[in-house]
Write a structure and sequence with these properties.
This protein is of the alpha/beta class. Helices cover 47% and strands 13% of the residues. The protein has helices at 17-22, 43-57, 69-80, 101-110, 114-124, 130-143, 145-157, 184-193, 209-212, 214-226, and strands at residues 2-6, 26-28, 62-67, 87-91, 171-176, 198-202. Strands 2-1-3-4-5-6 form a 6-stranded parallel sheet, with helices on both faces. Strand 3 (62-67), helix 3 (69-80) and strand 4 form a beta-alpha-beta unit. The protein is globular.
Length: 229
């Protein structure tokens, strides 16, 4: 099985370092514009870009794993091209991802203030191991706040509430118990709407559960893969 890890808004390969080191035949996807090229301007376009990426490399037996915006991409991929995917793992995400206007305005201000942008990154990653946190901050600084703003605007338009129940793939849904951006109720909604979905809530973790509690997340994914492999 080939595990493909799809990052959240404004993030890149470093977000998945604990997972790609743990799982054989896995890859952290670098989305367009993160930082090279131009980012896509909708979840739909990210899905089509990812499908083209997969087809060019002729990957088989694919497991798509997505965090936050990456989870939106994975859900929509599963809806459109479910016959091309073996299973889905959705981490700290939802079937609808509305973003507070005040948060979007704050991000827009950060596009012209690098210092405020860096402080924002230091704050959101404060629960992560210092060495990994620094690598994440450096990568995010390179990608930049404009890309994160673009991605959150994509999230704000994402809504498959009325369709998510039609996903017919083995699905694991993971959430940190203290996630404030995509709270536990989002995970429970997905687990209740996707037939046969497995739900895992990890204590004392926030929106970046897979980096804060990598052992617990990796073991949950491993158990899930073992249930149908």
């Amino acid at each position: 099985m080939k595990l493909l890890f799809i990052p959240g808004s404004g993030s890149g390969r470093e977000e998945w370092v604990y997972q790609t080191e743990y799982f054989n035949d896995s890859e952290a996807i670098v989305l367009p514009g993160h930082p090279d090229g131009n980012p896509c301007t909708s979840i739909d376009d990210y899905v089509e870009w990812l499908r083209s990426y997969i087809h060019r490399r002729r990957y088989q037996d694919i497991i798509l794993v997505g965090h936050s915006m990456g989870g939106a991409i994975v859900q929509l991929y599963g809806l459109r091209y479910g016959d091309e995917v073996k299973a889905l793992v959705l981490i700290d995400t939802g079937a609808r991802l509305r973003v507070l206007p005040t948060f979007l305005s704050a991000l827009e201000e950060m596009t012209t203030d690098k210092g405020v942008w860096q402080k924002f990154l230091e704050n959101i990653y404060h629960l992560i191991d210092p060495e990994i946190r620094q690598a994440l901050i450096e990568e995010n600084m390179l990608i930049g706040p404009a890309v994160m703003l673009n991605d959150f605007l994509c999230c704000d338009k994402f809504d498959i509430i009325d369709k998510v129940h039609t996903i017919k793939l083995p699905t694991l849904v993971i959430c940190g118990s203290e996630d404030e951006l995509t709270p536990v109720k989002y995970t429970k909604y997905l687990a209740n709407r996707i037939e046969g979905a497995t739900e895992v809530i990890i204590d004392e973790a926030s929106h970046w559960v897979h980096i804060e509690k990598p052992n617990e997340v990796n073991q949950a994914i491993e158990r899930f893969l073992g249930s149908f492999s």
